[in-house]
Design a protein that fits this description.
Helix content: 10-25%
Shape: globular
Radius of gyration: 20 Å
Number of helices: 1
Strand order of the largest sheet: 1-2-3-4
């Protein structure tokens, strides 16, 4: 009886040990601390590294930032010019089928809800003016 109980326990213990992973904070990320936020991974510059799209409240200000990942070092893309929002939702997707990830962003600017699409042309993001999307916050996008 003892052998029958011991074998499944050993198998479980070996599986837990084999698949256990340790996570640690990436000290070089330097991301803005936010609340009421959303975040999405995507390789907007097609370099093979996943970049970060982050929105929310940073301190007392709404933010919308893209962090470019270069071999594990994240730097803010200063030229992104995204509408700053909180209570937000974001997603990457290739809206115009050009091979570059574009952005769908919704949220609250501090005065109004917004829904925007930003097209990515070789790393330059431009708001698509003719979207006619409902202006929302506290939303979800995919």
């Amino acid at each position: 009886m003892m052998k029958k109980l011991l074998f499944p326990f050993l198998v479980l213990l070996i599986n837990v040990y084999t698949y256990a992973q340790t996570f640690s904070e990436l000290a070089t990320a330097n991301l803005t601390d936010v609340t009421q936020s959303d975040v999405a991974w995507g390789d907007y510059d097609n370099d093979g590294d996943l970049d970060i799209l982050l929105t929310g409240i940073g301190g007392s200000t709404e933010i919308s930032k893209i962090y470019t990942n270069t071999a594990g070092i994240f730097t803010e893309l200063a030229t992104a010019n995204l509408t700053e929002v909180t209570d937000s939702a974001v997603a990457w997707g290739d809206y115009d089928n050009d091979g570059d990830l574009d952005i769908l962003l919704t949220g609250y600017t501090g005065s109004v809800g917004v829904s925007k699409i930003y097209t990515n042309t070789a790393g330059t993001f431009t708001e698509l003016a003719t979207t006619n999307l409902a202006q929302v916050s506290f939303s979800s996008v995919a």
